[in-house]
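Key result, reporting period 2: structure in, sequence out.
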């Protein structure tokens, strides 16, 4: 075990002596798993009959990462998954900032801010709204690292299988959305024409718009179309191309020609819930942009493999994360709005006492109300040292004091 691991283990042990992990619902039916600072192994297939036994384990073993199963088992400490006898599983949504576009160019604080916005979008736009869960049934947890989890331990979802859970992910991420279901064709006879074979009907195929009372994705796409129509009417075509990346040069030329058509129909489109006042080419251009640009922008971020996995293990609330030292902490939706992990998830057991560290590179951040701009050999409070060493941005101690023996 190196010097960095020894320092983190000491800080974590102090934390676990002062803090008990938060026991999940029906914890005696859960499997627990751990990783450690002082051994290269993952210890799984453990069950705890009481909170005291888990707490004693944490103090004695000092895990670097602590997990529990989203599933319930009849025999959680059985050595194989088959022997455990699966009873059901919580519904889990996992959001991790490393999946965000451009995450590699963001600071840690920026990643946390962006992924919090994504969790707010997931809860407000989908879990509370479309899927109908109430706030009491959704347990939001900061992972201690780069993201958030939404746990739904409701009996209504307990026995959902992998397929059903994957369908929920598909709904939230708009995977497989049928654009012709959202904007269906309406066939209207416009005239009758006499031919030698008899009367022939001339039929117009116009797109319908979801009505105001529509729900789910149809409601979402109605509002998205309103925004698109306003943008087509009001924005310079070059600006429009930046806003909607799917617009090609040829499509842009079409939009320039159709702007007057859309402006003339802007109001009546959503009064009559039909695109019949627009030309066919204009209708299909709008629908294409809705499918390729607008629909993806109305989705929510989720880690797709996590939700369908009915035998997953996930971070244990009340534990600390081995790569940040931050607490895995449950929060309400109301608390989430102003939640700042670098202020609110720092264990109080980490002191303000100075710790010698050597920075691996220049690093600037805010933590617990203090601003740090660090380089080289320096001293920081223990809470900042745990964070920096955990993130491998610094080494414990001064490099200049670590002299190799010549013997």
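The corresponding designed sequence is given below.
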């Amino acid at each position: 075990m190196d010097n960095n691991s020894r320092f983190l283990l000491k800080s974590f042990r102090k934390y676990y002596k002062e803090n008990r992990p938060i026991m999940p619902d029906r914890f005696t039916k859960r499997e627990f798993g751990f990783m450690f600072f002082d051994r290269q192994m993952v210890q799984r297939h453990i069950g705890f009959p009481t909170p005291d036994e888990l707490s004693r384990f944490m103090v004695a073993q000092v895990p670097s990462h602590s997990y529990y199963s989203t599933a319930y088992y009849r025999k959680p400490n059985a050595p194989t998954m088959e022997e455990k006898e699966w009873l059901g599983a919580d519904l889990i949504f996992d959001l991790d900032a490393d999946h965000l576009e451009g995450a590699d160019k963001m600071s840690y604080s920026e990643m946390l801010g962006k992924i919090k916005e994504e969790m707010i979008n997931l809860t407000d736009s989908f879990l509370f709204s479309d899927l109908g869960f109430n706030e009491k049934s959704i347990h939001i947890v900061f992972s201690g690292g780069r993201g958030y989890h939404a746990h739904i331990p409701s009996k209504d979802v307990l026995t959902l299988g992998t397929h059903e859970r994957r369908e929920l992910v598909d709904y939230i991420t708009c995977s497989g959305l049928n654009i012709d279901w959202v904007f269906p064709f309406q066939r209207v006879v416009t005239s009758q024409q006499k031919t030698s074979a008899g009367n022939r009907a001339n039929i117009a195929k116009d797109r319908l718009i979801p009505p105001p009372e529509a729900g789910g994705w149809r409601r979402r796409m109605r509002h998205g179309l309103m925004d698109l129509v306003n943008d087509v009417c009001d924005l310079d075509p070059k600006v429009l191309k930046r806003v909607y990346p799917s617009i090609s040069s040829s499509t842009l030329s079409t939009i320039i020609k159709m702007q007057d058509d859309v402006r003339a129909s802007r109001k009546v489109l959503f009064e009559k819930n039909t695109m019949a006042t627009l030309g066919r080419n204009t209708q299909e251009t709008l629908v294409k942009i809705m499918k390729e640009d607008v629909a993806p922008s109305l989705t929510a971020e989720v880690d797709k493999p996590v939700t369908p996995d009915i035998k997953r293990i996930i971070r244990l609330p009340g534990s600390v994360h081995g790569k940040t030292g931050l607490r895995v902490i449950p929060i309400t939706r109301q608390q989430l709005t102003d939640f700042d992990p670098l202020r609110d998830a720092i264990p109080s057991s980490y002191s303000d006492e100075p710790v010698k560290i050597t920075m691996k590179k220049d690093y600037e951040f805010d933590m617990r109300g203090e601003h740090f701009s660090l380089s080289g050999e320096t001293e920081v409070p223990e809470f900042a040292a745990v964070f920096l060493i955990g993130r491998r941005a610094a080494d414990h101690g001064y490099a200049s004091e670590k002299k190799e023996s010549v013997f």
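The chain has a mean pLDDT of 93. The first strand starts at residue 32 and ends at 36. This case is discussed further under Risks and Mitigation.
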